[in-house]
Amino acid sequence: MPDQALPGPSLRVLVADDNPVVRAGLTALLDAHPDIAVVATARDGAEALDRAALLTPDVVLLDVRMPGTDGLTALPGLCAIAPVMMLTYSSEPEVVAEALRKGASGYLVHGEFTAAELIASVREMRRGRPTVPDSLGGSYQPLSFSSHLQSAVAQSSRARPLPVGGLHRHSAHQSEFGLSAREVEVMDLIAAGMNNRQIAATCFITEKTVKNHINRIFAKLHSSSRSEAIAHWLGTAHGGWSR
C-alpha cells in the first residue's frame, strides 16, 4: 500500500509508554512522515492525561501496562480529548474487551504489525475510522469495534490467544532467518529494549529458557551480541524499523 500522506496540518500525536526505547522508536517513526508530528510523550497514564489536556493532540497511542496510572485507568479521560489507539504487548481478550468498552478507537499488539500498518492506522483515526490494519497479502481491511470485541470474546478460552484484529506475523520474517515463532517473539522483544527478565515475564517462560532462545537466535542471525542481532533484525525483518 503506498504511503499516502493526508493534506492539511500535521496530525499531532501523543505517545504514552513506560519503555523509553519504545517511546523513542515510535517518535522517530512517526516524525519521519511530514504529515505527522509527535507533540509529546508520557511515561504513564497520569502524565499522558496532563499532557493531553495541555496540548489536545489529534491521536493518542497508549500502552496498557504502565507503573502508577496504567493505560486502562487513564483511557476514559484521554478518550474525552482525542481518539486513542492502544499500542501494547497485552493481547489478553479481557484486556482488549475492557479497552474497547472504555472507548479505545483501536488496539494493536506489538510484534503483530508493520511500521506501514501503524502509520496507516494512525491516519485512519484522523478520518474518524476506528480501524486497524490486517496484514493479509499487503491488504488493509477495516475492523469495527464489534469485530474486535467478537474476536476477543471468541478467543477467551484459548490459553495463548491470537492477536486481536486478525493481525498475523509475516511468515517471510521467520523464513528469512529460520526463526521459530517463539524466537521471532523473543527477537521482537529484544529489539524493543527488553532485558531477559522482562522477556521471561512477557512470554511466561523462565530466564534460562530466554537465554536458550537468545543463543539460538544469535546463531541464526550470525550475531555475537544483542546490538548486532538488532541491527540485522531491524534492517530486514520490519522494513527498517521495529517497535
Automatic annotation (TrEMBL):
Going by the UniProt record, its keywords in alphabetical order are: DNA-binding, Phosphoprotein, Transcription, Transcription regulation
An example Gene Ontology biological process: regulation of DNA-templated transcription
Which residues belong to any copy of the HTH luxR-type domain? 172-237
SMART domains the record matches: HTH_LUXR (SM00421), REC (SM00448)
Q: Tell me yes or no: is DNA-binding among this UniProt entry's keywords.
A: yes
Looking at the record's lineage, which domain of life comes first? Answer: Bacteria
Q: Which GO terms describe its molecular function?
A: DNA binding
Q: Which part of the chain is the Response regulatory domain?
A: 12-125
Q: Which Pfam families match?
A: GerE, Response_reg
Instruction: Give residue numbers for the modification (4-aspartylphosphate).
Output: 63
Classification via PANTHER family? TRANSCRIPTIONAL REGULATORY PROTEIN NARL-RELATED, TWO-COMPONENT RESPONSE REGULATOR
Tell me the protein's name.
Answer: Response regulator transcription factor
The scientific name of the source species is Streptomyces triticiradicis
